Amino acid sequence: MKRQHPLRDAALFSGIALALSYFVFWGPIAILRIRTLSFVGAGRGPVWAVTLFLVGGFVPSILAIVLALLTEGRAGVRALWKRCLMFGIGIRWYATIAVVVIAAVGCQLLLAYVVGARPLLTPFLSQLPTFIPLILIGPISEELGWRGFLLERLQQRWSALLSSVAIGVVWAFWHLPLFFMVGTSQRLLRIPFAGFLIALVMISIIMTWINNNTGGSIWAAILFHWLYTYAAQATSAAVTRNPLYNWLEYVPYVLVGAAIAWSTQHNQARDRLPPR
Predict the structure, then answer these.
(1) Are the CB atoms for 83 and 216 separated by under 8 Å?
(2) Cα–Cα distance measured from residue 9 to residue 155, given in angstroms and rounded to the nearest whole number
(3) What is the rounded average pLDDT for all residues in the chain?
(4) Residues 6+ apart with CB under 8 A from 129
(5) Residue 1: what pLDDT?
(6) Which long-range contacts link 74-77 to residues 24+ away (Cβ below 8 Å)?
(7) Of residues 149, 102, 94, 91, the one with CA closest to residue 256
(8) Which of 63, 239, 249, 253 fits 112 for a cystine, CB–CB 3.0-4.6 Å?
(9) With 50 as the cut, is the pLDDT of residue 88 above it?
(10) Per-domain residue ranges of the chain
(11) pLDDT digits (tens, 9 = 90+) for 152-190
(12) CB neighbours of residue 109 within 10 Å
C-alpha cells in the first residue's frame, strides 16, 4: 500500500521513540542515578533497571513493527522483514561497508597517537567474543526503526540529505539519557554530546548513501551498524582517552559523511543542468 501520510508517520515515530526513551525506559534510570549494565566498567544494577535499559534499546525496531502494522497492515511488516533479509547487496557494497569502518578506525588510532592517547591493538582481538552478541545491541534493536521505517517515510517527501540530517538529530537525542546514566560508556568516557550529535548526523548520511545504493536493504544498515559498534567498543578500549581525543574521535566519519553529502549534491546539481 502506498504511503499517504509519510511525514506524519515519521513525526509520530520520532515523537513516540523520544518519549519512551525520556519518560519510560532510560530517562527515569538516569534521573534516579541507578546503575544498569556497563560495557566499559564493572558492576551491574538491579534486574528491573537492567531490563528497562535493554528493552529501551529495542524501542526503535519494535516501534517500527507496530507502526508498520497499524498503518500498512501485515504487508507493511512483511516489507520490513523482506528488507532485513536482503543479503544480496553485492560484493562491492559488502567491501565498501567494511572499508569505511576499517579506514575510520585506522584514522581514529592515528588521531589517538597524535594527541597522546596511546593507542593499542590488542583490544581488537580481546573484544572478539562480544562481536556476535553485538548484532542485537544497536544493529537489530534499532535499524528497523531508523533506516527501515523512518528513512523510508522521510525520503518520500524530502531529499536524501535532509532526511539523513533529520534522522541523525532524532537518533542522537534518543541517546541523550545515556549521557547522564550511571555506568554507560557515554558518561564514563566523558563523550561530548555535541560531538556525538555531529557524528550521528554524518553517520546517518553514510548509512542513507548505503541504503539508497543497496535497494533499501535494512541488512546493509544492520551490517554497517554492527561493524561500527564493534569498532567503537574496541577503539574505546584501545586508547587512553583525553579531552582532545574525545572531541576528535569522530572526525573520520565526519569527513566521509561530508564527502558523500558534497558528492551527492554536486551530482544532483550537474544532472539539473540543461544539455548543451
Answers:
(1) yes
(2) 12
(3) 93
(4) none
(5) 45
(6) 75/1, 76/1
(7) 102
(8) 239
(9) yes
(10) 6-272
(11) 999 999 999 999 999 999 999 999 999 999 989 899 889
(12) 18
Burial 174-201 (b: 16+ CB within 10 A, else e): bbbbbbbbbbbbbbeeebeeebbbbbbb
Length of the chain (residues): 276
Q: Which residue in this structure is represented by grid cell 539508497? A: 212
Residue with cell 566498567: 41
Distance CA 184, CA 79 (A): 34
Q: Please name the residue that has the C-alpha cell 515519521.
A: 10
Residue 44 bridge partners (DSSP): 37
Q: What is the phi/psi pair of residue 37, to 5°?
A: -110, 150
Q: How many helices (H) and strands (E) does the chain have?
A: 15, 0
Cell numbers placing 258: 561530508
The CA distance from 134 to 95, in Å, is 20
Which residues are CB-neighbours of 81 under 8 A, at least 6 positions away? none
Give the global pTM: 0.94
DSSP string, 2-47: --S-HHHHHHHHHHHHHHHIIIIIHHHHHHHT---B-SSSS-B--H
